[in-house]
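ok so heres the complex, two chains, lmk if somethin looks off
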Amino acid sequence: MAWRQRSTVADGLPAGRGVRFEAVRFGWPGEPPLFDELSLSVEPGAIVALVGASGCGKSTLLRLAAGLLTPILGRVEAPDGERAFVFQRPTLLPWRTVAANVRLPLELGEAEGDTDAAVASALAKVGLSGDADKLPRALSGGMQMRASLARALVTRPSLMLLDEPFGALDALTRRSLHAVFLDLWRQERFTALLVTHDIDEAVLLADRVLVMRSATDGAPALIGGDQPVRLPRPRSRELLHDPALGALSRSLEAML
Amino acid sequence: MKTSAAGRLLPLAAAALILGLWWALSLRYPPVLLPSPAEVAQAAWTGRDRLLEATWHTALSSAGGLLIAGVFGLGGGVLFLRSRWLEAALYPYALLVQTVPIVAIAPLLVVWLGYGAPVAVTTAAIVAFFPILTAANVGLRSVSEEQVELLTLYGAGWWQQLIKLRLPGSLPYLLSGLRTAVGLSVIGAIIGEFVGSNGVPPTLGYLVLQSSRSAQTGTTFAAIFFATALALAAFGLVRLAEARLIDPWHGDSQ
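and the predicted structre for the whole thing:
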């Protein structure tokens, strides 16, 4: 399969499990279940995109994977080690400098060792070394999102959960952040579950695209499509003009 | 707003006009009813030692009351955050503290506490309490759901979320509540001093009352000006704290 071409990465795949949902039921109190008998898996070290209409439960699924929500029935397995979550908004603490924001997960985890070095390294990876002492307010939206990515990276997570992190950015900034994200993934080899409503973004970044259908008439939401993206890496935006990819995008759109 | 020369001069012009009107009016009435600005200035100058000492003691009482109000207001906010039940049970009484006329409580406080600063400290605390409680209550809940999720994800418990997220996040609200509370605390202290101060040491509340009773209206006016200056200075200190602590990060961008 094409996504196996990144053999250098495959050598270093995390030894642990990927993400597995087994027959998960979840719902909010007083409402019909949002998910029932939902199963899916994400291979260790893969990027899997989850697309679907807004409000269909993508973010809820991500929060189940993060352990922020607990299923009523079934099991959610995540890789051993740290999980990181990147929100749609940068969600930086505005009174902390960029570096202090990036340090936050280490503080909360009472990390030992050289936290300064970990923070500096995370900032360098997203290209924010020169902005460490600035307050978030002084940063553009794209730079704030870079800081948010650096904060997610600082614990060297084995699982990265991303909730439409690039959705609120302008097109150019989004492109540069796609490149940053793919770079990070190549270096860090985390497993990633990426929620997006942008199909181009999904096929450009992911090894697999899952299409989620909304809950309707009391029936739970479900994974209505599961498409591998067999494109070589590293990928560039020119791929988006590839006819094969166009067909893939169209078939995904049809599933929505 | 335009900070043109006109923008700076207009308030000064208004002040000059008011001063002029006051002067004109004072010519028509005896000084006991309305002393002229010059007579007030003279009373302030001759009585400056006593006025300054009184201002100092009133300032101490206000600050003491503010400190107590801050501890109870912020503590109450944290307690309400911790327990919805406690909030439901106690919030109506917090409102009651706000609505009971402070002038009516003050004599009772003298019965309990005797003459002296404790009465003024208590009245100042009572009036300053509610704005701080309200600010804490709103501020501690002002954090976003994502921020809470972020801290939860990294294993932060309730106290860690309070210290790392909710307390710093509530600072803009607390300082804005404090801005209201400082002015009130000066008023509260003076009301307490009306009944609870016997002039040893002198306090602004005592001076206002005593001078107006003994027909030294110039001193009354001077004491009122000192009280106003005290409240303004306290307000200015809070503004300064806001400018230093909050303005760099508090804004629309998040």
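quick notes: Chain B touches chain A through 23 residues (CB under 8 Å). thats all i got rn
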